Amino acid sequence: MLEVRDLQVAYGAAPALWGVTLDLRERELLCVVGPNGAGKTTLINTLAGVLRAKAGQIVFEGRDISTLPPHLFCEAGIAIVPEGRRLFGSMSVLENLEIGSVLPAAKARRGESMAMVLALFPALREKLAQAAGELSGGQQQMVAIGRALMARPRLLLLDEPSLGLSPLIVTELFAAIRRVHREGTAVLLVEQNVATALRVADRAYVLEEGRMVAEGTPDALMQRDEIRRAYLGV
Question: Mind listing the domains of the chain with CATH numbers?
Answer without folding.
Answer: 27-50+73-232 (3.40.50.300)
